[in-house]
Amino acid sequence: MFGLGFWEFIIIVVAIIVFIKPDDLPRFLRNLGRMFGKFHVFYRNFQELTARVERELERQISISDTDGRLDDKRRENLETKRGTIKGEAAGEITSKYAGHELHYQQ
After folding, report:
1. pTM, whole model, 2 decimals?
2. 33 lies in which domain range?
């Protein structure tokens, strides 16, 4: 689970119990669960978007390269465009979920 060993997990649980009042613990855990749920949705959307961009760029490259006449310069431009589009996609998803941070209030 997230690369955490047993003892690291125990330390985190003890720290949560020490620093959060018992009355606030259910609310904290509920908010933590929501945060992980939103992160899961964000991650899945990001994977789907990058896969869709990848397929589209592969399709464009295969169309351009059908006769084997795609020169190296054009291939480099398409690869650069692929990186740019992936960066823009990441920025788009990040901005979409920017206001959904976990705000824990005591």
Report:
1. 0.47
2. 25-96
- Residue 68 to residue 55: CA distance in whole angstroms: 19
Q: What is the DSSP letter of 20?
A: S
- How many domains would you assign to the chain? 1
- Which amino acid is it at 45? N
Contacts of 1 (CB under 8 A, 6+ apart): 9
The tens digit of pLDDT for each residue in 46-87 reads 999 988 888 888 887 776 665 555 566 666 777 777 777 666
In degrees to the nearest 10, what's the CA dihedral of 88, 89, 90, 92?
A: 90
As a whole number of angstroms, the distance between CA 102 and CA 91 comes to: 20
d(CA 61, CA 71): 11
